[in-house]
Specification:
Layout: E1 3-10, E2 15-20, E3 25-29, E4 44-52, E5 55-63, H1 78-100, H2 107-125
Antiparallel strand pairs: 1-2, 1-4, 2-3, 4-5
Helix pairs in contact: 1-2
Length: 129
């Protein structure tokens, strides 16, 4: 499977691009990501690839960078949490816009947003003992 790095990813729009190790640009859609994943720029990934109407498209993306440990009593770096919260705010702004137009998000998107909210809440509740 090819590998590369996340070039950029917009959680609100649900897509972004991967720069492959061969310097190819590969489109990545939210449906190709693991549930609840919010890839960060420069995260190493492994992915399947297919030729789409507009070029290469990633399939079944797997994030290779180790996820931060959430050992009991450990807290994330405040700068990292600030970035996570900013991404979450953008995601919630998208949901808010849909609700203002009288529509709930589709089930898959709602589940993804719920999973992210739970994860952020858990990270914020970790005690400093």
């Amino acid at each position: 499977m090819p590998t590369g790095r996340i070039k950029w990813y917009d959680a609100e729009k649900g897509f972004g691009f991967i720069t492959g190790d061969d310097n190819s640009d590969v489109f990545v859609h939210v449906t190709a990501l693991p549930d609840g994943a919010l890839p960060r720029p420069n995260s190493r990934v492994e992915y399947g690839v297919a030729e789409g109407r507009r070029g290469l498209q990633a399939l079944q993306v797997r994030i290779l960078d180790p996820l931060p440990s959430v050992a009991e009593g450990a807290r994330k770096d405040p700068d990292d949490m600030a970035a996570i919260l900013e991404d979450l705010i953008r995601m919630l702004d998208g949901v808010s816009g849909q609700l203002r137009r009288g529509r709930y998000p589709d089930e898959r998107h709602a589940q993804r947003v719920s999973a992210v909210l739970r994860a952020v809440a858990n990270d914020l509740e970790v005690s400093e003992n």
